[in-house]
What we know:
CATH topology of the largest domain: Aspartate Aminotransferase, domain 2
Radius of gyration: 22 Å
CATH superfamily of the largest domain: Type I PLP-dependent aspartate aminotransferase-like (Major domain)
Strand order of the largest sheet: 4-10-9-8-7-5-6
CATH class of the largest domain: Alpha Beta
Number of helices: 14
Helix content: 40-55%
Mean pLDDT: 97
Distance between the termini: 43 Å
Bound molecules: pyridoxal-5'-phosphate
CATH architecture of the largest domain: 3-Layer(aba) Sandwich
Amino acid sequence: MKEISDIRKDFPILSRKVYDKPLVYFDNGATTQKPRCVIDTVDEVLTTYNSNIHRGIHALSDKASEEYEKAREEVRAFINAGKTEEIVFTSGTTGSINAVAFSFGERYIGRDDEIIVSNLEHHANIVPWQMMCERKNAKLRVIPINDNGEVLFDEYLKLLSKKTKLVAITQASNALGTILPVKEIIRAAHSMNIPVLVDGAQGIQHGIVDVSDLDADFYVFSGHKIYGPTGIGVLYGKEKWLTEMPPYQGGGDMVENVTFEKTTYNVLPFKFEAGTMNFPAAIGLAAALRYVTLIGRENIRERENELLQYATSRLLQIDGLKIYGNIEDKISIISFLLKDIHMYDTGMILDKLGVAVRTGTHCAQPVMDRFGISGTVRVSMCFYNTKEEIDVLAAGIEKVKSMFA
Length: 405
Ligand code: PLP
């Protein structure tokens, strides 16, 4: 693995100051910073071959289309999908889940059917299903979690029934860090011929994805959470499903033939890509995936585990600090509260010290409700963070405490 000092040089923003203090960026669960190669790639698209894809016969359009399709192939290889036809570009995880909720819902869901989610889901993997249930008079069922933030597998098995039409589950909780036993969840669902959508928004960032090994029916993620640009996301779907599902948006490029009497649709994956796609971001995403591959996904996991262990032991030494989500198998996220100190006070003081953490529900209000709290302070680390930064965080938390003592 590259030296950490060299890795940090790859990310221009990491050398900036905030309130005259070196930036300590611990909000990677919300969005990650971008390496120079991603910034340069998007810049190169816009300065040298910007042109609408799949539309023109001129040189610029050819080049843009070629790079966009190359990006699709790189995404396919990265997540180990079988075919490029199974890779649909979207605006992000939210866009991908809404697409499936609408399209799968239209095709397969009827009155009294059930969709299973877990208590750990981000709002993006709850609300689109609720909207679909409202449209179709279907029901949302929820797998409960225990006090450590783990899903109760036996309860999940009890929820599976003939009425279940889909399981939609996150690979890792953005609120607590819990890694879910997704493979086992999928295996149990498949034993009853029920498809599974995996929300990979957090999982992908920490290098844990192989859709073929998982046997996921759908796998979705956002470019901006894996060091790529915002405004681009991926919907992987098994060919069988994507073929049977109707398009969820109509417009240019998703059609084969249009007349006022009847329109026929384009082949996969274009059937699901209506209008001008965010091709500079898709090409930028491919650059991000190449960067992650260069650093090494195993190296990333190892380094982030080390940071998680170090940060957990440092934070647990702080009197009055309680961590939510206490299992071994976690991504590098720590959610905590300080006794008698409001999370926003903690977050605001840390900010003044140059430390960026997230405070609130993390768009996972049901998780907070489960613990009877209104939110937490979340530290989300990634491989470019350092133990020294964790020391700055720990000292900052001590300072917060002393200010409220
Ligand atoms: N799912 C999970 C687990 C997330 O952590 C997030 C974002 O934090 C999302 C979905 C939504 O991602 P986006 O806002 O990029 O669509």
